[in-house]
Design brief:
Distance between the termini: 39 Å
Largest sheet: 5 strands, mixed
Keywords: Hydrolase, Metal-binding, Metalloprotease, Protease, Signal, Zinc
CATH class of one domain: Alpha Beta
Strand order of the largest sheet: 1-16-19-20-14
Pfam families: Peptidase_M4, Peptidase_M4_C
Structural class: alpha/beta
CATH topology of one domain: Elastase, domain 1
GO molecular function: metal ion binding; metalloendopeptidase activity
InterPro entries: Peptidase_M4/M1_CTD_sf, Peptidase_M4_C_domain, Peptidase_M4_domain, Zinc_Metalloprotease_M4
Number of strands: 20
CATH architecture of one domain: Roll
Order of helices and strands: EEEEEEEHEEEHHEEHHHHEEEEEEEE
Amino acid sequence: MNPKTTLGAFALLTVVAMGATAPASGAEATSTVSRHATARSAGTDGSLSSGQALLGSGNSHFNGNPVTIQTTYSAGLYSLKDPTRPGLSCGRLNGPVFTKTTDTWGDGTGTSLETACVDVMFAAQKHWDMLRNWLGRNGVDGAGNSYPAVVGMNDVNAYWDGTRAVFGHNSAHTKQLTSLDVVGWQYGRAVYEMSGSNDGNGTEAQDLSKSAADIFGTLTEHYVNHPLALDEPDYLIGEEVNTVGAGPLIHMYNPSLTGYSNCYNSLVPPLPGGAQDHWFYLLAEGTNPPGKPTSPVCAGPSTLTGIGIRKAARIFYLGLQRKTLGWSYGRARVATVQAAKNLYGCPEMNATKAAWTAIRVPAQVGEPTCSMPTPPPSATPSPTSPSGPSSSLSGITVDPPSARVSPGGSTTVQIKLSPGTAQQVTLSAGGSPAGTTVSIDQSTTATINVSASTPQGTYTITFVATSGGSTETTHFTLIVAGEDRRCLINDHPGCG
């Protein structure tokens, strides 16, 4: 995030800090890594320094050839370790990270473990970039870190064990389970575990966890946006790896096609993932999107119009930051409806409600409401100067919209005003938890400092822009959490 973002013709800016505010999970630490033309010209003598980050060339199975992946050079060897995304590496199960004397990796075949690691590194790096660029999250754990991956498990399976992503092969032994969506799925499980609070591991929470992984896998595909010949963006999970020889593991637009439930039923334990997958598709794409599969509804209006995958992603993600003990479909509805209202406004909030209603998750006590103002009668517009911007204040946003900060930590967010604002504007922030302060500088960068005594939890901080008689507000979600979320995974060694 650039703290020097230009706001246009801004005559005068007054900054006021009113009370404490919240941190944003995305103080982006952007690393610029460039590969020199000769691939060996890091120093003036043409040598490479130990620990240097490089851009290696990979021959992948799922992502085309060649692909560029972040690698490391150290002590005369290149390795599949990414120093710009701390913690990310790939090697054989029960073996070391892959190393070699050249920075070219894999042979493109579906059975090669080195090729599998090329696909893992490519997908995990793109998943990280999607989290940062689309959702404002700083790394898989929200604090600038990722986790290692291993390939070569002799099983038709892939899983996240709380410390690493583990990948096996399909039932035909022709492909490793390392396509974009499957890799995004495993790291998505990690993001879910490290968002909000402990979900309690109830039946609905487990279902929502698996579905969240489907959504993160799908977002990774859409972020990369491969052509049809590769792992193109769609709403299918596992179609490229053909895990058990029966095609996709789930059709998010109609989960019943793969034996899952399209609809929520509070009296029957849901089949993993289906209902929330269906909700996400209806929110993003609607019931009959052009060029994409139609999607049925379980209740409510028969026709829904999608708001787009990026808006749906931000609503889903911000809702996930409100995850609490006893996480359920009803609580997920309330959290995402509030997120939609905070991020965008009434139309998106109502679309979020409609999508939940469509899968039979009813309105909940305490969910926000929003009234749509009646447009004023048309009138002749007032003349404006063609040579200068409007002086009205018409909007304020904060980027990123949420952040996870440990007690004693800090983060920064960028406050953005509507283009063309050209008069005195006062910025303020309020609603922060005890022990948290916010300061806003002249470049409209807000720094949020969380003290070690701030109680852990999820908080909403309101940023306010005032200009003349006009006031605009936007909301930021601060998650204060310091415990190791990996221990929320039951099968993680060392966790009870």
